[in-house]
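User: My advisor asked me to double-check a structure prediction for HTH araC/xylS-type domain-containing protein before group meeting. I don't want to rely on an old file, so could you generate it fresh from this sequence?
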Amino acid sequence: MLAGLCQLSYAQQAESLDQLSDEQLLTMFDEVIQDSLAAERVARIYLDRARKEKDTIKMARGYDRLARIFSLERNIQFADSVITLTADLNHITYPALGYILRGYNFQLGDDLVNCTRNYLEAYKLSIQNENSLQQVYLLDKLIYKKAIWGNRIEALKLQKRRDELVQDKNYIEKLRSANRIGVEFDVEEILLNDFIVSSENYAFIYYNMRRLDSARVYLKEALKLLENYKGEHLDYHRNWVIEFQMELEYIAENYKESIRIGDSIISGGTGIYMSSSLFNAYMIAGLSRTKMLNNYESGLTMMLKADSIFSTEKIRIQPYKRELFDTLLGYYRSIDDDKSQMKYLSRLITFDSIMRVNYQYFEPELIKELETNELIAQKQELLARLNRNKRVNGIKIGVLFGFVLLSCWALVYYYRKHVLYRKRYESLKSNSGPTARKSKMRRQEISDEVIREILDRLEQFERKKAYLSADISLNSIARSFGTNAKYLSSVINLNKGKNFSQYINSLRTQYAFDRLREDRMFQRYTIRAVAGESGFNRAESFSKAFYRNFGIYPSYYIKKLEKDELKTTPNPAEPLAD
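Assistant: Sure, here is a fresh prediction for HTH araC/xylS-type domain-containing protein from the sequence you gave:
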Protein backbone atom coordinates (compact mmCIF):
# COMPACT_ATOMS: atom_id res chain seq x y z
CA MET A 1 0.00 0.00 0.00
CA LEU A 2 2.83 2.42 0.91
CA ALA A 3 4.77 1.65 -2.25
CA GLY A 4 1.73 2.47 -4.35
CA LEU A 5 1.17 5.76 -2.57
CA CYS A 6 4.73 6.86 -3.23
CA GLN A 7 4.00 6.89 -6.97
CA LEU A 8 1.12 9.37 -6.56
CA SER A 9 1.11 13.17 -6.44
CA TYR A 10 0.42 14.93 -3.14
CA ALA A 11 -3.25 15.47 -4.02
CA GLN A 12 -3.62 11.86 -5.14
CA GLN A 13 -1.94 10.66 -1.95
CA ALA A 14 -4.33 12.73 0.19
CA GLU A 15 -7.29 11.33 -1.74
CA SER A 16 -5.97 7.79 -1.39
CA LEU A 17 -5.27 8.20 2.36
CA ASP A 18 -8.78 9.57 2.83
CA GLN A 19 -10.16 6.22 1.70
CA LEU A 20 -8.48 4.40 4.60
CA SER A 21 -10.22 3.60 7.86
CA ASP A 22 -9.17 5.29 11.10
CA GLU A 23 -7.31 2.17 12.26
CA GLN A 24 -5.53 1.84 8.90
CA LEU A 25 -4.34 5.44 9.16
CA LEU A 26 -2.94 4.88 12.66
CA THR A 27 -1.21 1.70 11.48
CA MET A 28 0.27 3.54 8.50
CA PHE A 29 1.50 6.32 10.80
CA ASP A 30 3.51 3.75 12.78
CA GLU A 31 4.99 2.40 9.54
CA VAL A 32 6.18 5.80 8.23
CA ILE A 33 7.07 7.54 11.52
CA GLN A 34 10.76 7.83 10.53
CA ASP A 35 9.68 9.95 7.53
CA SER A 36 8.38 13.09 9.25
CA LEU A 37 6.70 14.48 6.10
CA ALA A 38 4.83 11.27 5.37
CA ALA A 39 3.93 10.82 9.04
CA GLU A 40 2.62 14.38 9.29
CA ARG A 41 0.50 13.87 6.17
CA VAL A 42 -1.13 10.77 7.68
CA ALA A 43 -1.65 12.45 11.07
CA ARG A 44 -3.20 15.56 9.44
CA ILE A 45 -5.65 13.44 7.45
CA TYR A 46 -6.67 11.67 10.69
CA LEU A 47 -6.93 14.98 12.58
CA ASP A 48 -8.99 16.70 9.86
CA ARG A 49 -11.39 13.78 9.83
CA ALA A 50 -11.71 13.96 13.63
CA ARG A 51 -12.47 17.70 13.47
CA LYS A 52 -15.21 17.15 10.91
CA GLU A 53 -16.72 14.47 13.13
CA LYS A 54 -16.22 16.68 16.23
CA ASP A 55 -14.69 13.65 17.98
CA THR A 56 -12.56 14.97 20.84
CA ILE A 57 -10.70 11.70 21.53
CA LYS A 58 -9.84 11.21 17.87
CA MET A 59 -8.62 14.81 17.72
CA ALA A 60 -6.42 14.07 20.75
CA ARG A 61 -5.03 11.00 18.94
CA GLY A 62 -4.17 13.22 15.96
CA TYR A 63 -2.29 15.74 18.11
CA ASP A 64 -0.71 12.83 19.99
CA ARG A 65 0.81 11.57 16.71
CA LEU A 66 2.01 15.04 15.71
CA ALA A 67 3.76 15.31 19.10
CA ARG A 68 6.14 12.50 18.08
CA ILE A 69 7.70 13.65 14.80
CA PHE A 70 9.08 17.19 15.09
CA SER A 71 11.61 19.11 17.18
CA LEU A 72 11.31 18.87 20.98
CA GLU A 73 9.77 22.33 21.32
CA ARG A 74 7.14 21.70 18.66
CA ASN A 75 6.39 18.22 20.01
CA ILE A 76 5.74 19.75 23.44
CA GLN A 77 3.36 22.27 21.86
CA PHE A 78 1.33 19.45 20.29
CA ALA A 79 1.37 17.58 23.62
CA ASP A 80 -0.04 20.75 25.22
CA SER A 81 -2.85 20.63 22.64
CA VAL A 82 -3.65 17.07 23.75
CA ILE A 83 -3.83 18.21 27.39
CA THR A 84 -5.90 21.34 26.69
CA LEU A 85 -8.35 19.43 24.51
CA THR A 86 -9.00 16.64 27.05
CA ALA A 87 -8.37 18.41 30.38
CA ASP A 88 -12.01 18.09 31.49
CA LEU A 89 -12.39 14.44 30.44
CA ASN A 90 -12.05 11.38 32.65
CA HIS A 91 -10.80 9.30 29.74
CA ILE A 92 -8.69 6.19 30.36
CA THR A 93 -5.91 7.49 28.07
CA TYR A 94 -6.18 11.28 27.95
CA PRO A 95 -5.01 13.77 29.16
CA ALA A 96 -2.43 11.52 30.90
CA LEU A 97 -0.81 10.62 27.57
CA GLY A 98 -0.29 14.34 26.88
CA TYR A 99 1.78 14.61 30.07
CA ILE A 100 3.68 11.44 29.13
CA LEU A 101 4.58 13.01 25.77
CA ARG A 102 5.70 16.22 27.51
CA GLY A 103 7.84 14.23 29.94
CA TYR A 104 9.36 12.15 27.16
CA ASN A 105 10.38 15.22 25.15
CA PHE A 106 11.79 16.98 28.23
CA GLN A 107 13.82 13.82 28.85
CA LEU A 108 15.23 13.96 25.31
CA GLY A 109 16.24 17.55 26.05
CA ASP A 110 18.00 16.47 29.30
CA ASP A 111 15.56 18.46 31.45
CA LEU A 112 15.22 15.85 34.18
CA VAL A 113 13.17 17.99 36.57
CA ASN A 114 10.42 18.95 34.09
CA CYS A 115 10.47 15.41 32.70
CA THR A 116 9.79 13.94 36.16
CA ARG A 117 7.12 16.54 37.03
CA ASN A 118 5.15 15.62 33.92
CA TYR A 119 5.58 11.87 34.53
CA LEU A 120 4.29 12.30 38.11
CA GLU A 121 1.24 14.22 36.87
CA ALA A 122 0.60 11.51 34.27
CA TYR A 123 0.99 8.80 36.93
CA LYS A 124 -1.58 10.50 39.17
CA LEU A 125 -4.05 10.66 36.26
CA SER A 126 -3.34 7.04 35.22
CA ILE A 127 -4.29 5.87 38.73
CA GLN A 128 -7.37 8.07 38.74
CA ASN A 129 -8.51 6.67 35.38
CA GLU A 130 -7.39 3.08 36.15
CA ASN A 131 -4.99 2.76 33.22
CA SER A 132 -2.63 -0.09 34.19
CA LEU A 133 -0.68 0.17 30.92
CA GLN A 134 0.27 3.78 31.64
CA GLN A 135 0.97 3.05 35.30
CA VAL A 136 3.49 0.31 34.50
CA TYR A 137 5.20 2.47 31.85
CA LEU A 138 5.47 5.45 34.22
CA LEU A 139 6.62 3.38 37.17
CA ASP A 140 9.51 2.07 35.04
CA LYS A 141 10.55 5.66 34.31
CA LEU A 142 10.19 6.85 37.91
CA ILE A 143 11.96 3.80 39.38
CA TYR A 144 15.08 4.54 37.32
CA LYS A 145 15.08 8.23 38.21
CA LYS A 146 14.66 7.49 41.92
CA ALA A 147 17.36 4.80 41.84
CA ILE A 148 19.85 7.15 40.15
CA TRP A 149 19.05 10.53 41.71
CA GLY A 150 16.86 9.95 44.73
CA ASN A 151 15.89 7.65 47.56
CA ARG A 152 16.54 4.02 46.59
CA ILE A 153 14.13 2.78 49.28
CA GLU A 154 11.37 4.74 47.53
CA ALA A 155 12.47 3.22 44.22
CA LEU A 156 12.09 -0.22 45.80
CA LYS A 157 8.56 0.66 46.98
CA LEU A 158 7.62 1.80 43.48
CA GLN A 159 8.91 -1.49 42.04
CA LYS A 160 6.80 -3.48 44.52
CA ARG A 161 3.79 -1.43 43.43
CA ARG A 162 4.67 -2.38 39.84
CA ASP A 163 4.76 -6.05 40.87
CA GLU A 164 1.23 -5.75 42.25
CA LEU A 165 0.01 -4.40 38.93
CA VAL A 166 1.58 -7.00 36.61
CA GLN A 167 0.73 -9.92 38.92
CA ASP A 168 -2.93 -8.89 39.23
CA LYS A 169 -5.12 -11.68 37.82
CA ASN A 170 -7.07 -9.06 35.83
CA TYR A 171 -3.93 -7.36 34.44
CA ILE A 172 -4.41 -8.55 30.84
CA GLU A 173 -8.03 -7.44 30.79
CA LYS A 174 -6.96 -4.06 32.12
CA LEU A 175 -4.41 -3.80 29.32
CA ARG A 176 -7.11 -4.58 26.77
CA SER A 177 -9.34 -1.83 28.16
CA ALA A 178 -6.43 0.64 27.97
CA ASN A 179 -5.94 -0.04 24.22
CA ARG A 180 -8.11 0.90 21.28
CA ILE A 181 -10.79 -1.59 20.30
CA GLY A 182 -9.39 -4.00 17.74
CA VAL A 183 -5.72 -3.66 18.75
CA GLU A 184 -4.26 -7.15 19.09
CA PHE A 185 -1.25 -8.14 21.20
CA ASP A 186 0.53 -11.30 22.34
CA VAL A 187 -0.50 -11.86 25.97
CA GLU A 188 2.35 -14.26 26.83
CA GLU A 189 4.95 -11.98 25.24
CA ILE A 190 3.70 -8.94 27.19
CA LEU A 191 3.66 -10.79 30.51
CA LEU A 192 7.13 -12.26 29.99
CA ASN A 193 8.50 -8.86 28.98
CA ASP A 194 6.99 -7.30 32.12
CA PHE A 195 8.56 -9.97 34.33
CA ILE A 196 11.96 -9.46 32.67
CA VAL A 197 11.72 -5.70 33.26
CA SER A 198 10.80 -6.33 36.90
CA SER A 199 13.96 -8.41 37.39
CA GLU A 200 16.04 -5.73 35.65
CA ASN A 201 14.51 -3.02 37.85
CA TYR A 202 15.26 -4.91 41.06
CA ALA A 203 18.83 -5.59 39.90
CA PHE A 204 19.30 -1.90 39.05
CA ILE A 205 17.92 -0.66 42.37
CA TYR A 206 20.06 -3.04 44.45
CA TYR A 207 23.09 -2.13 42.34
CA ASN A 208 22.59 1.54 43.20
CA MET A 209 22.12 0.57 46.85
CA ARG A 210 25.46 -1.32 46.50
CA ARG A 211 23.78 -4.55 47.59
CA LEU A 212 25.64 -6.42 44.88
CA ASP A 213 24.67 -9.97 45.93
CA SER A 214 20.97 -9.09 45.61
CA ALA A 215 21.65 -7.40 42.27
CA ARG A 216 23.31 -10.62 41.01
CA VAL A 217 20.31 -12.70 42.07
CA TYR A 218 17.92 -10.60 39.98
CA LEU A 219 20.38 -10.44 37.08
CA LYS A 220 20.37 -14.27 36.96
CA GLU A 221 16.58 -14.22 37.12
CA ALA A 222 16.43 -11.85 34.13
CA LEU A 223 18.83 -14.08 32.18
CA LYS A 224 16.70 -17.15 32.87
CA LEU A 225 13.52 -15.42 31.74
CA LEU A 226 15.26 -14.21 28.57
CA GLU A 227 15.84 -17.83 27.50
CA ASN A 228 12.13 -18.10 26.61
CA TYR A 229 11.58 -14.56 25.30
CA LYS A 230 11.35 -14.00 21.53
CA GLY A 231 9.60 -10.62 21.49
CA GLU A 232 10.44 -7.32 19.81
CA HIS A 233 12.52 -6.08 22.79
CA LEU A 234 14.89 -9.07 22.78
CA ASP A 235 17.96 -7.17 21.55
CA TYR A 236 17.37 -4.37 24.05
CA HIS A 237 17.16 -6.82 26.98
CA ARG A 238 20.24 -8.77 25.87
CA ASN A 239 22.30 -5.59 25.56
CA TRP A 240 21.01 -4.26 28.88
CA VAL A 241 22.01 -7.46 30.70
CA ILE A 242 25.53 -7.43 29.19
CA GLU A 243 26.10 -3.77 29.97
CA PHE A 244 24.72 -4.11 33.51
CA GLN A 245 26.94 -7.11 34.22
CA MET A 246 29.97 -5.05 33.13
CA GLU A 247 29.05 -2.24 35.54
CA LEU A 248 28.38 -4.75 38.33
CA GLU A 249 31.79 -6.41 37.93
CA TYR A 250 33.49 -3.02 37.94
CA ILE A 251 31.87 -1.96 41.23
CA ALA A 252 32.75 -5.39 42.67
CA GLU A 253 36.38 -4.73 41.61
CA ASN A 254 36.43 -7.78 39.35
CA TYR A 255 38.39 -5.75 36.82
CA LYS A 256 39.45 -8.61 34.54
CA GLU A 257 35.79 -9.48 33.96
CA SER A 258 34.66 -5.86 33.51
CA ILE A 259 37.48 -5.42 30.95
CA ARG A 260 36.45 -8.60 29.11
CA ILE A 261 32.81 -7.51 28.87
CA GLY A 262 33.71 -3.93 27.99
CA ASP A 263 36.01 -5.07 25.19
CA SER A 264 33.26 -7.34 23.81
CA ILE A 265 30.82 -4.41 23.68
CA ILE A 266 33.41 -2.24 21.94
CA SER A 267 34.06 -4.96 19.36
CA GLY A 268 30.29 -5.11 18.68
CA GLY A 269 30.36 -1.42 17.72
CA THR A 270 27.50 0.82 16.63
CA GLY A 271 25.92 -1.98 14.61
CA ILE A 272 24.80 -3.60 17.87
CA TYR A 273 25.10 -1.04 20.65
CA MET A 274 23.90 2.52 21.10
CA SER A 275 26.42 5.32 21.63
CA SER A 276 25.57 5.50 25.35
CA SER A 277 26.50 1.81 25.72
CA LEU A 278 29.78 2.34 23.86
CA PHE A 279 30.54 5.30 26.12
CA ASN A 280 30.03 3.08 29.19
CA ALA A 281 32.16 0.30 27.70
CA TYR A 282 35.10 2.60 26.89
CA MET A 283 34.81 4.32 30.27
CA ILE A 284 34.66 1.15 32.37
CA ALA A 285 37.25 -0.74 30.31
CA GLY A 286 39.59 2.25 30.68
CA LEU A 287 38.96 2.79 34.41
CA SER A 288 39.30 -0.96 35.06
CA ARG A 289 42.71 -1.09 33.35
CA THR A 290 43.84 1.99 35.27
CA LYS A 291 42.87 0.48 38.62
CA MET A 292 44.01 -3.06 37.92
CA LEU A 293 47.49 -2.00 36.76
CA ASN A 294 47.64 1.01 39.08
CA ASN A 295 48.72 3.45 36.37
CA TYR A 296 46.91 5.96 34.18
CA GLU A 297 48.53 5.11 30.85
CA SER A 298 47.07 1.59 30.69
CA GLY A 299 43.52 2.88 30.35
CA LEU A 300 44.12 6.40 28.99
CA THR A 301 43.28 5.72 25.34
CA MET A 302 39.92 4.19 26.21
CA MET A 303 39.05 6.91 28.71
CA LEU A 304 39.81 9.59 26.12
CA LYS A 305 37.61 7.72 23.61
CA ALA A 306 34.80 7.75 26.18
CA ASP A 307 35.35 11.50 26.65
CA SER A 308 35.13 11.99 22.88
CA ILE A 309 31.82 10.08 22.69
CA PHE A 310 30.48 12.11 25.62
CA SER A 311 31.30 15.36 23.82
CA THR A 312 29.97 14.42 20.37
CA GLU A 313 26.96 12.21 21.15
CA LYS A 314 25.28 14.26 23.90
CA ILE A 315 25.49 11.51 26.51
CA ARG A 316 23.25 12.15 29.52
CA ILE A 317 24.85 13.31 32.75
CA GLN A 318 24.56 10.76 35.57
CA PRO A 319 26.51 10.64 38.86
CA TYR A 320 28.61 7.54 38.13
CA LYS A 321 30.02 9.08 34.93
CA ARG A 322 31.75 11.77 36.97
CA GLU A 323 34.54 9.32 37.86
CA LEU A 324 35.80 9.38 34.27
CA PHE A 325 36.51 13.11 34.29
CA ASP A 326 37.88 13.05 37.83
CA THR A 327 40.35 10.34 36.76
CA LEU A 328 41.40 12.25 33.63
CA LEU A 329 41.93 15.37 35.75
CA GLY A 330 44.14 13.32 38.08
CA TYR A 331 46.21 12.07 35.15
CA TYR A 332 46.85 15.54 33.73
CA ARG A 333 47.77 16.79 37.19
CA SER A 334 50.34 14.01 37.44
CA ILE A 335 52.08 15.22 34.25
CA ASP A 336 51.61 18.97 34.97
CA ASP A 337 49.47 19.58 31.86
CA ASP A 338 47.75 22.82 32.90
CA LYS A 339 45.70 23.21 29.72
CA SER A 340 44.13 19.74 30.00
CA GLN A 341 43.59 20.25 33.73
CA MET A 342 41.59 23.38 32.91
CA LYS A 343 39.47 21.41 30.44
CA TYR A 344 38.52 18.72 32.96
CA LEU A 345 38.07 21.12 35.87
CA SER A 346 35.56 23.02 33.69
CA ARG A 347 33.91 19.74 32.72
CA LEU A 348 33.54 18.70 36.39
CA ILE A 349 32.16 22.11 37.41
CA THR A 350 29.53 21.88 34.64
CA PHE A 351 28.81 18.29 35.66
CA ASP A 352 28.32 19.27 39.31
CA SER A 353 26.08 22.24 38.47
CA ILE A 354 23.66 19.95 36.59
CA MET A 355 23.84 17.33 39.33
CA ARG A 356 23.06 20.05 41.90
CA VAL A 357 19.83 20.96 40.07
CA ASN A 358 18.78 17.30 39.87
CA TYR A 359 19.68 16.51 43.48
CA GLN A 360 17.85 19.66 44.64
CA TYR A 361 14.69 18.20 43.14
CA PHE A 362 15.14 14.54 44.12
CA GLU A 363 17.37 14.42 47.19
CA PRO A 364 18.60 17.81 48.50
CA GLU A 365 20.81 16.21 51.19
CA LEU A 366 23.11 14.75 48.52
CA ILE A 367 24.15 18.25 47.42
CA LYS A 368 26.44 18.37 50.45
CA GLU A 369 28.62 15.68 48.88
CA LEU A 370 29.43 17.78 45.80
CA GLU A 371 32.79 19.54 45.80
CA THR A 372 31.96 22.37 43.38
CA ASN A 373 33.43 25.20 45.51
CA GLU A 374 36.74 23.36 45.88
CA LEU A 375 36.84 22.73 42.11
CA ILE A 376 36.22 26.43 41.40
CA ALA A 377 39.06 27.38 43.75
CA GLN A 378 41.36 24.91 41.95
CA LYS A 379 40.34 26.37 38.61
CA GLN A 380 41.11 29.93 39.78
CA GLU A 381 44.51 28.82 41.10
CA LEU A 382 45.26 27.12 37.79
CA LEU A 383 44.24 30.24 35.86
CA ALA A 384 46.63 32.31 37.98
CA ARG A 385 49.46 29.87 37.24
CA LEU A 386 48.68 29.94 33.54
CA ASN A 387 48.78 33.75 33.59
CA ARG A 388 52.19 33.67 35.31
CA ASN A 389 53.43 31.27 32.65
CA LYS A 390 52.21 33.65 29.96
CA ARG A 391 54.31 36.46 31.40
CA VAL A 392 57.39 34.21 31.68
CA ASN A 393 56.97 33.10 28.10
CA GLY A 394 56.44 36.62 26.70
CA ILE A 395 59.65 36.47 24.65
CA LYS A 396 58.24 33.60 22.64
CA ILE A 397 55.40 35.80 21.42
CA GLY A 398 57.69 37.77 19.14
CA VAL A 399 59.06 34.59 17.60
CA LEU A 400 55.55 33.40 16.91
CA PHE A 401 54.32 36.75 15.58
CA GLY A 402 54.83 35.79 11.96
CA PHE A 403 52.99 32.55 12.49
CA VAL A 404 50.09 34.44 14.06
CA LEU A 405 49.88 36.76 11.07
CA LEU A 406 49.73 33.77 8.76
CA SER A 407 47.09 32.19 10.95
CA CYS A 408 45.03 35.40 10.89
CA TRP A 409 45.13 35.40 7.11
CA ALA A 410 43.96 31.78 7.13
CA LEU A 411 41.16 32.64 9.56
CA VAL A 412 39.99 35.56 7.41
CA TYR A 413 39.96 33.26 4.40
CA TYR A 414 38.04 30.61 6.34
CA TYR A 415 35.61 33.21 7.71
CA ARG A 416 34.83 34.58 4.25
CA LYS A 417 34.33 31.05 3.00
CA HIS A 418 32.07 30.28 5.97
CA VAL A 419 29.98 33.44 5.34
CA LEU A 420 29.65 32.49 1.68
CA TYR A 421 28.51 28.96 2.60
CA ARG A 422 26.06 30.32 5.15
CA LYS A 423 24.51 32.71 2.61
CA ARG A 424 24.20 29.87 0.14
CA TYR A 425 22.60 27.65 2.80
CA GLU A 426 20.04 30.33 3.77
CA SER A 427 19.24 30.87 0.09
CA LEU A 428 18.80 27.12 -0.46
CA LYS A 429 16.65 26.88 2.67
CA SER A 430 14.23 29.46 1.33
CA ASN A 431 14.28 28.25 -2.28
CA SER A 432 14.41 24.47 -1.55
CA GLY A 433 17.12 23.88 -4.14
CA PRO A 434 19.25 25.45 -6.84
CA THR A 435 17.80 27.89 -9.36
CA ALA A 436 17.01 26.18 -12.63
CA ARG A 437 19.05 27.27 -15.63
CA LYS A 438 17.42 27.96 -18.95
CA SER A 439 18.86 26.25 -21.97
CA LYS A 440 20.50 28.38 -24.61
CA MET A 441 20.65 25.51 -27.07
CA ARG A 442 18.90 25.51 -30.37
CA ARG A 443 16.26 22.96 -31.12
CA GLN A 444 17.53 20.07 -33.23
CA GLU A 445 15.72 18.27 -35.99
CA ILE A 446 13.50 16.03 -33.87
CA SER A 447 9.76 15.84 -34.37
CA ASP A 448 7.47 17.37 -31.74
CA GLU A 449 5.86 13.98 -31.18
CA VAL A 450 9.19 12.31 -30.36
CA ILE A 451 10.15 15.16 -28.04
CA ARG A 452 6.83 14.93 -26.19
CA GLU A 453 7.15 11.17 -25.85
CA ILE A 454 10.72 11.42 -24.47
CA LEU A 455 9.68 14.20 -22.06
CA ASP A 456 6.77 12.06 -20.83
CA ARG A 457 9.18 9.17 -20.25
CA LEU A 458 11.59 11.47 -18.42
CA GLU A 459 8.77 12.67 -16.17
CA GLN A 460 7.94 9.06 -15.28
CA PHE A 461 11.66 8.35 -14.80
CA GLU A 462 11.94 11.22 -12.30
CA ARG A 463 8.70 10.38 -10.49
CA LYS A 464 9.74 6.75 -9.96
CA LYS A 465 13.20 7.92 -8.81
CA ALA A 466 14.81 5.49 -11.25
CA TYR A 467 17.87 7.75 -11.20
CA LEU A 468 18.76 6.31 -7.79
CA SER A 469 20.04 3.17 -9.51
CA ALA A 470 23.83 3.32 -9.76
CA ASP A 471 23.85 1.23 -12.97
CA ILE A 472 21.97 3.55 -15.35
CA SER A 473 23.56 4.98 -18.49
CA LEU A 474 22.46 7.09 -21.45
CA ASN A 475 22.20 3.98 -23.65
CA SER A 476 20.28 1.90 -21.08
CA ILE A 477 17.72 4.66 -20.50
CA ALA A 478 17.34 5.28 -24.23
CA ARG A 479 16.63 1.57 -24.77
CA SER A 480 14.05 1.55 -21.96
CA PHE A 481 12.39 4.63 -23.56
CA GLY A 482 12.30 2.95 -26.98
CA THR A 483 14.44 5.67 -28.55
CA ASN A 484 18.12 6.21 -29.36
CA ALA A 485 20.84 7.78 -27.21
CA LYS A 486 21.35 10.71 -29.59
CA TYR A 487 17.69 11.79 -29.43
CA LEU A 488 17.55 11.36 -25.67
CA SER A 489 20.73 13.37 -25.16
CA SER A 490 19.45 16.15 -27.43
CA VAL A 491 16.09 16.42 -25.64
CA ILE A 492 17.82 16.56 -22.24
CA ASN A 493 20.21 19.26 -23.49
CA LEU A 494 17.39 21.24 -25.11
CA ASN A 495 14.81 21.00 -22.29
CA LYS A 496 16.88 20.54 -19.14
CA GLY A 497 19.81 22.77 -20.03
CA LYS A 498 22.29 20.06 -19.04
CA ASN A 499 24.14 17.16 -20.51
CA PHE A 500 23.10 13.65 -19.47
CA SER A 501 25.62 13.30 -16.64
CA GLN A 502 24.74 16.70 -15.19
CA TYR A 503 21.02 15.90 -15.43
CA ILE A 504 21.34 12.59 -13.53
CA ASN A 505 23.62 14.09 -10.89
CA SER A 506 21.29 17.05 -10.35
CA LEU A 507 18.36 14.67 -9.74
CA ARG A 508 20.39 12.58 -7.33
CA THR A 509 21.75 15.54 -5.37
CA GLN A 510 18.28 17.14 -5.23
CA TYR A 511 16.97 13.85 -3.79
CA ALA A 512 19.71 13.88 -1.16
CA PHE A 513 19.08 17.58 -0.42
CA ASP A 514 15.34 17.05 0.14
CA ARG A 515 15.63 13.82 2.09
CA LEU A 516 18.30 15.22 4.42
CA ARG A 517 16.04 18.17 5.17
CA GLU A 518 12.96 16.03 5.75
CA ASP A 519 14.33 12.83 7.31
CA ARG A 520 16.10 13.25 10.65
CA MET A 521 17.36 9.66 10.61
CA PHE A 522 18.94 10.19 7.17
CA GLN A 523 21.00 13.05 8.63
CA ARG A 524 22.77 10.51 10.85
CA TYR A 525 24.08 8.53 7.85
CA THR A 526 27.73 8.86 6.85
CA ILE A 527 28.43 10.84 3.67
CA ARG A 528 29.31 7.54 1.98
CA ALA A 529 25.94 6.05 3.00
CA VAL A 530 24.03 9.15 1.84
CA ALA A 531 25.88 8.95 -1.48
CA GLY A 532 24.98 5.27 -1.90
CA GLU A 533 21.31 5.93 -1.09
CA SER A 534 21.33 8.70 -3.70
CA GLY A 535 22.74 6.57 -6.53
CA PHE A 536 26.44 7.48 -6.37
CA ASN A 537 29.16 4.85 -6.26
CA ARG A 538 31.70 7.11 -4.54
CA ALA A 539 31.34 9.65 -1.73
CA GLU A 540 33.82 11.99 -3.43
CA SER A 541 31.74 12.12 -6.63
CA PHE A 542 28.62 12.82 -4.60
CA SER A 543 30.25 15.65 -2.61
CA LYS A 544 31.57 17.32 -5.78
CA ALA A 545 28.20 17.01 -7.55
CA PHE A 546 26.39 18.34 -4.47
CA TYR A 547 28.73 21.35 -4.34
CA ARG A 548 28.28 22.06 -8.07
CA ASN A 549 24.51 21.97 -7.65
CA PHE A 550 24.12 23.88 -4.36
CA GLY A 551 27.40 25.71 -3.74
CA ILE A 552 27.98 23.97 -0.38
CA TYR A 553 29.25 20.53 0.57
CA PRO A 554 26.83 17.93 2.03
CA SER A 555 28.80 17.73 5.29
CA TYR A 556 28.28 21.46 5.84
CA TYR A 557 24.58 21.19 4.92
CA ILE A 558 24.02 18.37 7.44
CA LYS A 559 25.74 20.33 10.24
CA LYS A 560 23.56 23.36 9.56
CA LEU A 561 20.40 21.23 9.55
CA GLU A 562 21.40 19.72 12.90
CA LYS A 563 21.91 23.20 14.34
CA ASP A 564 18.49 24.27 13.05
CA GLU A 565 16.74 21.43 14.82
CA LEU A 566 17.77 19.75 18.10
CA LYS A 567 18.66 16.06 17.58
CA THR A 568 18.88 13.13 19.88
CA THR A 569 18.92 9.42 19.66
CA PRO A 570 16.37 8.34 22.33
CA ASN A 571 17.46 5.42 24.47
CA PRO A 572 14.19 4.99 26.48
CA ALA A 573 11.14 3.30 25.03
CA GLU A 574 8.82 5.46 22.95
CA PRO A 575 5.76 6.90 24.73
CA LEU A 576 2.70 4.71 24.79
CA ALA A 577 0.19 5.17 21.99
CA ASP A 578 -3.55 5.08 22.31
